[in-house]
Each structure stands twice: as structure tokens, then as C-alpha cells.
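TICKET: design request
STATUS: open
ATTACHED STRUCTURE:
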């Protein structure tokens, strides 16, 4: 009988790709925000971006190696990504900042696929 992780679903592959892209986008956004200063560089905002970077990497890693806990990490990832999207969107609207809007959009895309993965039985 083949192991569950031997054949990765297309949905999981998409989620891994979204997590990897979100990881990169949020990491780049930290640099952008620190360069912008002001509200963009607020400690709570930077910490949220850092949380998003780390949880996206962790979720991707858990899925790649077929961890039995991936559904749980994806659930947390979806929650963090949604919070990060809300915060980035707030700053995007405040300053008409297309970089922040792109980050918010990527976070929402990642949150959507992670939410689906979180519903999978481990």
C-alpha cells in the first residue's frame, strides 16, 4: 500500500507554492517597510510580517515532507496570513502603496489554500 505522502495532490502542490511565494513576499515587504519608516516600520507590523514569513516556511516544509501535522500548521498559517493581509491592506490604502497591496493579495491567496489544507484529515 503506498504511503499517503508518495502522491502529493495538486491542491497541496499549489498550497506549497503559495506558502513559498508568501514567505518571499513578506520577507521583501519587511525590507520595504523598514525603508518607508513611520507606520510601515511599527514594531507590531514588522513582527506580524516576520510571523507570516516563518509560518509560511514551516507550513511548506511540513507539507513537503508529508508530516501528519501539516493540517494543523496550515490552519495557523491561514490565520496569520489573514491578519497580515489585513494589516498590509490597511497600510496600502493609507499610502496608496502598491507593494503593500501586493503583499496583502499574496497573503490572502496563501490563506485560502492553507485553509483548505487545514480541513484535510491527517
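STATUS: resolved
RESOLUTION: sequence designed for all positions
ATTACHED SEQUENCE:
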Amino acid at each position: 500500500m503506498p504511503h499517503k505522502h508518495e502522491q502529493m495532490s495538486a491542491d497541496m502542490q499549489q498550497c506549497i507554492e503559495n506558502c513559498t511565494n508568501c514567505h518571499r513576499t513578506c520577507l521583501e515587504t519587511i525590507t520595504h517597510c523598514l525603508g518607508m519608516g513611520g507606520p510601515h516600520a511599527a514594531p507590531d507590523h514588522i513582527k506580524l510580517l516576520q510571523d507570516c514569513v516563518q509560518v509560511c516556511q514551516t507550513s511548506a516544509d511540513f507539507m513537503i515532507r508529508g508530516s501528519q501535522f501539516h493540517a494543523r500548521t496550515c490552519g495557523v498559517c491561514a490565520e496569520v496570513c489573514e491578519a497580515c493581509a489585513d494589516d498590509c491592506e490597511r497600510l496600502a490604502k493609507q499610502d496608496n502603496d502598491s507593494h503593500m497591496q501586493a503583499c496583502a493579495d499574496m497573503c490572502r491567496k496563501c490563506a485560502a489554500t492553507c485553509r483548505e489544507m487545514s480541513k484535510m484529515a491527517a
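CLOSING REMARK: DSSP finds four helices and no strands in the chain. Residues 1-6 have pLDDT under 50 and may be disordered.
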